[in-house]
Amino acid sequence: MTDLPTCRRATWSDLDAWTGAIAAKVRAAGHTPEAIVGLSRGGWIPARLIADHLGVKRLLALQTAHWGVTATKDGHAALTEQLSGSVEGATVLVADDITDTGESLALAVEHVQSEGRPSRLETATCLHITHSKFLPTYFAEEVPADHWVWVVFPWTYWEDLRALATKALPDGKDAAGVTQLLREKCRWTVPPVDVERALRQAAASTAR
Ligand code: AMP
Q1: 208 in a domain, yes or no?
Q2: For residue range 165-177, what is the model confidence (pLDDT) as tens digits?
Q3: Is the CB of 9 under 6 A from ligand 1?
Q4: Which pLDDT does position 207 carry in this prediction?
Q5: Which pLDDT value is given to residue 1?
Q6: Residues 56 and 140 in one domain
Q7: Residues 41, 121: one domain?
Q8: Quick one: how far is CA 78 from the chain centroid?
Q9: Cβ of 151 less than 6 Å from ligand 1
Q10: Which residue segment(s) compose the domain that 198 sits in?
Q11: Could you tell me the distance, in angstroms and rounded to a whole number, from the CA of residue 98 to the centre of ligand 1?
């Protein structure tokens, strides 16, 4: 039987609450940054929302890659895009969606610190899993390591669905079977029409 991860859907309301809670903590610390760096890809939208809450106008990007396919680690975290602008002497907040192994954020911080030379560097994530090797300065919600889940963010819905539906297909046999496996094994209730679409998209991309 294929190994399918337990999933948790994150909603836009969750995102609003999480980024609002982070902004409140940043404000309480008196550390509203001059620039926010969104760690691509998962940190982009949280970074933009935190910037909105805090009224920060400088929003930069940096990319690391770690988890290749949904819930499957792709070796070690690697830096794939350099910091998109200068932060020399500035106070900076690096934002991401979740710290799981913590490798991506640790790598990003190392890079921003050594290449960017900011005057202060802090980090924020919406969710923090307690086994992470990196502890963000601010996080909105802590997830105990023994309650690990794969979080399906609004911006990874189709990517995660394509990956997990494809993984479930050999056991599920067809879209209906896959829908049932996603519900039972992943605890993710997905409209059958979305499962069909995800399987079609996945098949089309492997045929390319
Ligand atoms: P990590 O380097 O393991 O801390 O995670 C790097 C990135 O992979 C995160 O910023 C997320 O975009 C993604 N990721 C890792 N673990 C999870 C998870 N449990 N649920 C959803 N996304 C995850």
Answers
A1: no
A2: 999 999 999 999 9
A3: no
A4: 78
A5: 62
A6: yes
A7: yes
A8: 15
A9: yes
A10: 153-203
A11: 6
Same domain? For 100 and 172 the reply is: no
Answer whether 150 contacts ligand 1 (Cβ < 6 A): yes
pLDDT score of 187 more than 70: yes
C-alpha span between 97 and 48 (Å, rounded):
11
Among the atoms of ligand 1, which is closest to the Cα of residue 67? 8
| Structure tokens that stand for 146 in this block | 């023994």
0.85 cut: is pTM over it?
yes
Question: If you write DSSP's letter for every residue of 13-38 in order, what string do you get?
Answer: HHHHHHHHHHHHHHHHTT---SEEEE
Distance 190 CA to ligand 1 centre (A): 21
Which residue, of 151, 176, 192, is where some domain finishes?
Answer: 151
Contact 159/70 with Cβ under 8 angstroms? yes
Give the CA distances from residue 148 to residues 95, 108, 183, in Å, rounded to whole numbers and listed in that order: 21, 23, 17
CA of 170 to the centre of ligand 1 (A): 26
Tell the residue nearest (CA) to atom 9 of ligand 1: 98
Same domain for 45 and 69, yes or no, is yes
pLDDT recorded at residue 68? 80
Q: What is the pLDDT of residues 29-64, one digit of tens each?
A: 999 999 999 999 999 999 999 999 999 999 999 999
Q: Among the atoms of ligand 1, which is closest to the Cα of residue 42? A: 12
